[in-house]
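Researcher: Before we compare anything, I want clean individual predictions. No alignment, no superposition, just each chain on its own. First chain goes here; please echo the sequence and then give the structure tokens.
Model: Echoing the first chain and its structure:
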Amino acid sequence: MRQVKIGSMRIDLVSEIPALAFDKSWLFANVTDAVIAENRSWLDHRYIEPETGRFILSHHSYLVRTPRWTAIVDTCCGNHKKRPRVPMWNDLNQPYLDNMQALGVAPQEVDFVMCTHLHVDHVGWNTRLLDGRWVPTFSNARYLMGREEYRHFEAAHNAAPKSPVNHGSFEDSVLPVVAAGLAELVETDHRLFDDREAALRFAPAPGHTAGNMQIHLDGGQDHAVMSGDVIHHPIQCAAPWLSNAADVDPAAAVATRMALLEQLADTPSYLLTGHFPAPTAGRVIRHGGAYRFRFED
């Protein structure tokens, strides 16, 4: 992804896993071969495997920089974490921090970690393994997490402390941040900055998780939405009714997705999702009675 500029904000992609293929029915239980065939003309081999029809996703974060502060949005899967139920995320050893360093940012220089939600593949680099302990990766940052979602997973953890809530990520990637005093629980409409050239706010995005959020960035006349898992794959622009298996409220997730697509359609606003493969960034355009995604190469 080439750098996106929103007012005084510069947005870069920090890659963890550039391309990972998921079984189509595992990702979207209600997908059909007909829907895939209808969209193959604009979704090439970068997004759908030609031989298998599997959907290709990226795992990445967004690095947001201004002259005053640096933030990282969603922190992927993380290294050395035991995820036996999902082998593709298990015990990774990826050069994520090297990729961040290549963009000119060291972990200690990050001021804010912003979590659209707390699923296993969005919080992993919140912590890293040091001398056998999970410690915050971004030691000088405030970690902003949704209060509603945190309380939901906290209750599940307290009810069954030995059960691996969120594949174990709540224990190894969230609770150590809380224990270190770096977590800030926020409401789903929390505003972090209101500067004319760098306004940043959360917005409710119900459906994928309890208390799911998206992030809006405004600067001057520019606007972008970091949608987290409101949309997983570009085929959902053409078929917004495709529901991800992890959605806790599929109907609400569809409504949230439809509302976002309608808001952005045929506007200059960027859509920056949590999993679109390279070139990742782009804009929503209308196509017939639905939408498509135009990647910005």
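Researcher: Okay. Second chain, same rules.
Model: Second chain and its structure:
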Amino acid sequence: MTASTRYDDVADLLARRIAQGTYTVGDRLPSIRELCREQGISVTTAQSAYARLEEMGLAAARPRSGHYVLPRPRPRDLPTVSRPAQRPLEVAQWDQVLAMVGSAPSADQPRRLGAGTPALDAATLKPLGRLLSGLHRDPDPRDLGYDSLAGHPPLRQQVARLATTSGCLLHPDDVVITTGCQEALAIALRMLAAPGDVVAVDSPSFYGAMQILEAHGLKVMEIPTDPRRGISLEALELALDQWPIRAIQITPTCNNPLGYTMPESRKRELIRLARRYDVAIIEDDIYGDLAFESPRPKAIKAFDDEGRVLLCSGVSKSLMPGLRVGWIAPGRYRDRALHEKYVSTGASATQPQRAVAAFIEKGHYQRHLREIARRYQRQRDIMTDWVSESFPDGTRISQPRGGFLLWVELPGPIDTPRLNERLAAERLHVAPGPMFSASGKYRHCLRLNYAERPTASLEAAIRRVGELAGEMLEYPDSEATLS
């Protein structure tokens, strides 16, 4: 075990003790010498462990006294449980989605404060850059032709090994590589439902999946969703009783946009419900590897012994979106998934697959996840403080358990599409709530991204959003351009 992973492990051990109440607020933690003796580590490793604990916001050093447990951040009001329409709906909102994803960021574009882009400046991504450079500099002739339709075999092997961290037992042949997780979701939805069919989703829900449903003429049954526990299984059961639902599409771990992770007991119950009504589950696990807890939560797929869960994931959120590397473990639907893959894009590009496979195999991926999850957790707390301080009273904020996206529920009549119009004059843009609903709900909600390192410029932008929201609340009928 390397020194770096050792001090990470010691820091995680101390964090667990704090969480369990072994050490409470104000308690003095073991001295450097005591920690060295207890854990059998060097002074340098112990000092690094405490530095990590400080970065996590769990402890602070007092001169000539030692390290002490800090108070936990004060609890904030979470967003309210969603109350979507109780009938299947057709999807709209494409114009708002296009405004978010339609063009690459440039000097002429607004600063997108709600985009779903991960941090691309992490030092732990450098080995991936070197792998990609080497492949481009000295390409293997085999990389210039078509790869296997199911995907590069070494990558499928690494994905199957990686799946064990989420409790899934997969064979490499169970995995089909796709051009991003978006294609995996599209393949799953096309296989399971025909135009006019109904698909149940958590609400609010990922707008990319919603647009796939719209493009294929599918109807959406939005299910009430709790910001702590996730989709309401009680409401889902009522919907399954009442409507001919063909599939359940859900993001149960580090959800986008609410940030919740469904408790394991409810994931098991969801499997039982799907079995009783004989419906498939499309599980979007794209943010699962970015969970702040260790080990990461189990996927719903981990409890599936019938092949009815189609697990979709990729590296667009954990590594780089530009790689366009995703995958689907389609269970009993594998043959159909291969056919859908063929008619949509055929084989995926080989070089990105080779680079990602090598990155995982060499241990770089797990190291990157450890570092980036700690960073995102710190930045979540900073962003939450900025929103709490600068947004109107009554604002409710999600408490994500992973990933890098924050859901904000504004008070009163504040309309976030209209807020975006006012922000455009200052070259700012948030992700407005209606993007995440088939019916255009959540007009008083927005999504923010905290993957970017905190800077004075970012803080000023967030505070400006809050100021404009406050002015809209105070003067709801004013259409004048605000200064």
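Researcher: What stands out in the second chain?
Model: Residues 364-390 form the longest helix (27 residues). Additionally, The chain has a mean pLDDT of 90.
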